[in-house]
User: What shape does this take?
Amino acid sequence: MELDTYFYNHILGGVYGQALGDAWAMPAYFRPDQTWAYFNNDWINTLAPAPPDHPVHAGFQAGQITDDTQQALALAQVIITEGQITVEGAARAIVAWYEQLDGDVPYVGPSTRRAVAALKSGGDPYQTGLRGDTNGGAMRISPIGLIHPGNPEAAVEDAVIACTPTHFTDLAVSGACAVAAAVAQALTPDTTLEDIIDIAIRGADYGRQHGTPWLGASVARKIDYAVQLAGDANLSAYDRLLNLYDLIGSTLSPADAVPCAFGVLAMANGSPVETAIYAAALSGDADTVGAMACAIAGAWHGIESIPADHIETLNRANPAYDFAEFAKGLHHIAQNNYQATDQPHDDLFEAPL
Ligand SMILES: [Mg+2]
Assistant: This one.
């Protein structure tokens, strides 16, 4: 296959992967046992509507995406229109997303809510994100990886820019850089899961050197720990998920949610549907974990790895979004970026940290 076709198929896989993981895990409850009980003591095996008593997503239909993918596509739109990401563009993207909402919905995250309020009243986008310490930067970062196929170094540099207006603590930047680096690496033909995880860990370390110094666990070390827990051959899949939930944490913190994403990705060996099933069963901030993990999975295995009936459900449930158009636009930027680099840029990660 031509490299260009390969990149398009895998960028499309990344866009649909993000949507798939987000929508698949959207009906999950806060705790794994609650999700397990509601879904008849079984895995959530398909795209399902939110339970009517769901604390955040009640009323959502099967396949409907949440803020994670909406914000990722808002970021993608700015990149497609402007050809690159800037701090000002990232600020415009998040404000544009917020203004499309139907009033003050319960699922706007705390850092984004605070930053949008400041930006709307004229705040400086270099200042509005200085206290952003939750996982919103990471949950919407996949387009940054998708425009840098095979170039995680460029992806982490752009991830820092994308985080600036809302999530500019070292903790949040670290989480976003891990995901952006992983997505960029996942687009590399013949790459392995080991490579993707290794690059993610390096990305997390790079990101931790940017943004406001903050308190928080190491995203990099917890990715490594989560992947170890995910691979414990002595335990059932459900018990490994319980370990991820109890020992890593499926919470709003980037140091919890991002490592969990790599845990479920590893458990599923990067199959998008299986990754989504595990993210949903994990519960907690499941849609964010699923969105991040499945964006990486889809970028790695390509659009052919996502069954057509799920693609149709996602298209039907989200008529406001033309996912393929977003992939085409991102692919165009990715082509420009790829042609501008004639050799792999791994010097950034090779330098002593
Ligand atoms: Mg969400």
Notes: Residues 66-68, 107, 287-288 surround magnesium ion (CB under 6 Å). The two ends are 37 Å apart (CA to CA).
